[in-house]
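At this stage, I wrote out one protein, both as residues and as discrete backbone shape codes, and that material follows here.
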Amino acid sequence: MVNYWLMKSELDVYPYSQLVEDGSTHWDGVRNYQARNMMRDAMKVGDYVLFYHSNCKPPHIAGIAKVCKEGYPDFTSWDSSSKYFDEKSSPENPRWFMVDLEPVKPLTKIVSLDSVRNEPSLSDMPLIRRGQRLSIQPVEEKEFQRICEMGGLESGKLE
């Protein structure tokens, strides 16, 4: 069974266009236990991801990605030169996990946060709930399909 997710990246740190250029990436540096647990325990190869640009005007969904490697230890957590270093994490006892993503398709038109807020069928998305700041969030299939439609894609024809 395919699951659907929304993953946030700051536009000036790692934009969707960079994922397209790179071909794939590991989603490192997540330091929230709830988000870590989703990557470690729930995200599976083949799951679809709404790639969300945060910390920009307007915040928006830019493209579709796919999980291409399931959760594994985030090696940046035991690299003392990394900004994501955590002295309590080690290869023998990893505290943090990551998944790998690959691009599927950019949206034909971005779907802004305001557009999501104003779409009645998306009113239950965690993205628009007050106080919801997780960088990784589950998405219902019907929400994913609606976002694809709003972004100019047919969700059944992603690849």
User: Anything to note?
Assistant: The radius of gyration is 15 Å. Residues 92 and 153 are 43 Å apart (CA to CA). Helices lie at 16-22, 33-42, 113-117, 141-150. The chain has a mean pLDDT of 96.
